Amino acid sequence: MTASTGHNCVIETEGLTRIFGSVCAVDNLNLRVEQGRFFGFLGPNGAGKSTTLKMLTGMLAPSRGRIRLFGADTSDPECARQLRRRIGVVPENLALFDYLTAREYLLFIGRMYDLPLPVVAQRTEELLALMGLAKEDNKLTLDFSHGMKKKLALAAALLPGPDLLFLDEPFEGVDPVSSRLLKDILQQCVARGATVFLTSHVLEIVERLCTDVAIIHQGRLVFQGTMEEIRQTGSLEDHFLATVGREHLQAQRLTWLEET
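-> structure tokens emitted (260 positions)
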């Protein structure tokens, strides 16, 4: 394992790049995320957020550049395998198995992390109760609503008790009650010392929850700082639009709505 250059640096990238054909989706990205932070990773559609998250979680190989998690270089296969035991992920497509029940799916996840069966059983019961899924024993995940699938995916990510959580749009399509539940759970994770890496288009949620924010635009990192720094000059929305969206916003108009 290679030691990190930063004290308590949980995520560190150097020149991280991903190219698809002639398109550079992520361009020379340098990120640093400290332990115990709630980190919001923002950008317009197509900016490279999900591609970055896939590289950080090992689902996609970088074209070039380096990733360190917990101070260890993920290019070492054995190191990467060990690191995955400390990580929970809610990916963009949720990655559930349609023909398993919620309980069966969590049992499968627990065994994948090589957790003892009594531990898996206890945590499964607590998670199903917390997520309101305990009475869905006879329903396959194929028949779950989108919000139920989101809660099951988060339950699976929380099951191993990860030190680092990667969440790709976890609040999309979730009702207000479930959204509040997810917020409370994530804040509890951070309070106990875990690190949360969140992508979201809902700036109000990011502004309320996150301690740190980075903004990516056209594959490049254009801002990284704390929410305290942003609040000194205005709202997160104002900062985001000034950074990546003001020109586009001003350029767009519908002529028939301007008619008098």
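Residues 1-6 have pLDDT under 50 and may be disordered.
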